[in-house]
Design brief:
With 317 residues, the protein is mainly beta. It has helices at residues 2-12, 96-99, 308-316; strands at residues 17-21, 24-31, 36-41, 47-53, 56-57, 82-87, 104-108, 112-116, 125-133, 140-148, 154-165, 169-173, 185-187, 193-194, 202-205, 208-211, 219-222, 228-232, 237-243, 259-262, 268-273, 278-280, 285-296. 39% of the residues are buried.
Amino acid sequence: MRLLLTLLFMTTFLHAETMNSFGYTNCFVLKNTAHTRVIIAPQAGGRILEYAYDGVNVLYQDPTQAGWTSTSGTPAPDPCGGRFDVGPEFILPRHPALWLNAWEVVAASARSATIRSVIDPATGLQLTRTFTLDETTSHLQCRQTMRNCSSNTVSCCYWSRTLATGHGIVLIPLSAWSRFPKHYIMYGPGSVMNFMPDDPAIRQRDGFLEIIAPPERPKLGMDAQTGVIAYLTRDNLLFVKHFAVYPDRPYAELAGLTISIWYKETSRCELEPIGPLERLAPGAEATYEENWTLHPFPFPQNNAPVDLTHIRKLLDK
């Protein structure tokens, strides 16, 4: 039996590489021949610390958070990096056990890692995340499974909360139709959701919604059916997220959002795909994934507009 367990462990972690990163030990490293490296930290919220092309990380890191864990005795931060969550934001109970606690490493290899949360006492959910890096491209598959471990039905949804580096430009391909007159809403002040905002940092151009700087109020919502968010960084990288959208299914956020963007400060920008409503019976589970890619792309100089024709060609691939 001991030999069997040893062989199972060796197979599960075959060729897995670890390193110290951002104050954490034994972070898992996924890398390939396509200039791409991913660093995953299970210790605090099961998140991605680095998604980098040629050593340039597109994810925001707050240096004051380096090495923080739920057992460190310091106040809990709003974690930086590539975070993932469950919603709806204003309906589901707060769940710090999922958001901040250490995650178990289930399996790891040279280009894939699977981690699992504790069973959350607030929601009854247990989350499993699998990250898989393609062998020859920057494509990173991020898959989250939500399992209901309680004795009651749980209504929830996938909610990605990736913090990218600041000063960038958000580019969202528009659907032919939107329930919002300007294809987005702006949250605030207070509990107001403004469906007719007028902000100079946000514009429509050539079939895209462009957010070229932090708007007057940081939280925005979209109902686009295109399933794409692109973000052009000042480091000349286009960070693209593809994800499924289900027009015939309900979405649980207050305004039926498929995307939210939070862009309060120039230091970071939050890119948030949102999944459809899941009603999980006891023991049931649901899986949702998003697919990331990185593309070298020049950031426009002297306030010149982004070449949207080139952007569309990249996204159509």
